[in-house]
Amino acid sequence: MQPRNMSMSGVVDLAAVKAAGEAKAKAEQARAEAARRGDTGAVPPSSLVIDVDEAGFERDVLQRSAEVPVVIDFWAEWCEPCKQLSPVLERLAREYNGRFVLAKVDVDANQMLMQQFQIQGIPAVFAVVAGQALPLFQGAAPEAQIRETLDQLIQVGEQRFGLTGITVDAEAGAEPGADAEPEERVGPYDALLEAAVRALDADDFGGAAQAYRNVLADDPGNTEAKLGLAQAELLARVKGMDPQQVRKEAAERADDVPAQVAAADLDLVGGHVEDAFGRLVEAVRRTAGEDRDAARLRLLELFEVIGSDDPRVTAARQALARVLF
Fold it and tell me: Mind telling me the catalytic residues?
């Protein structure tokens, strides 16, 4: 069974005018028909993460991708990096709440799919949008990079193909009494977080970073520790910099990514958030290959410092998507 309309050349080619127009029209027609029937199309949370095999690929991935982007996680039980990446993807699928669906493919049991997608190593992550496939990334990528990739995928799916996601019914499939508020996970982190703050106050940025890493090793989703680590690493990078020299080099060498990255760090520490983001977006636009990746990854790190809910981060993500796609 060969996936239809496979295009591995990237999201720009996926956005061909005819294909995008047809997909958008079908999506709008399906939503209108559901509205006439009074059908909200809501799905249970369990539908956000699904196991897919060769027999169900047509139904579970290709057909579903006409409603919502489907992210495919190619994994295997023996793959240690897969055990790091898969829980992150599953958590993000639930957090994004219907903006994409995660399809998990065990490559040992689905060799044909592995061959059709030309998988060279795992973990490997692809997406299918409106019946067409594109590679996203390979390996256990950092969460910030994964989020950025998902945000771009969702944006393309919505703007080019009219895929606005699916509605999730949080009550569907719940066990009796499951509506009670779950107890928050309590971890012995207060002492570590206080130690990190004291280290920051003493300009011991390395010590602060290590304290935050200790928290994240046990609780990877700890928001305070993630933000603190990003701040500590930023402060460690700018410590000892000569601001005048850094800005002089950045002004003289517009295509020098290390110079632009250093200047962006200084911009952010100085409170010039939009300048820092704009500088790195421009660096991504002007460069390619490893230089482009370096600028993009530093931009994602600076997003972590400011916080994903900040409107300046939202605007910068949109600008980044424009220059990438």
Answer: 79, 82
Q: What is the 8-class DSSP label of residue 58?
A: I
**Residue 250 contacts residue 238 (beta carbons within 8 Å):** no
Rg (CA), the chain: 22
Closest CA to 150 of 74, 199, 89: 89
| Residue in this structure with the two tokens 């982007």, named with its chain if needed | 69
Across 185-219, b (16+ Cβ under 10 Å) vs e yields eeeebeebbebbeebbeeebbebbbbbbebbbeee
Q: pLDDT (tens digit, 9 = 90+) per residue, 269-325? A: 888 999 999 999 999 999 988 898 899 999 988 988 888 778 888 888 888 888 876
Please, which residues have CB within 8 angstroms of residue 263's CB and are 6 or more apart in sequence? 246, 247, 249, 250, 279
Sheet holding 132-138, edge to edge: 49-51, 101-106, 70-75, 124-129, 132-138
**Contact indicator for 163, 68 with CB cutoff of 8 Å:** yes
CA separation for the pair 118, 123 (Å, rounded): 13
pTM score: 0.48
DSSP β-ladder status, 132-138 and 49-51: unpaired
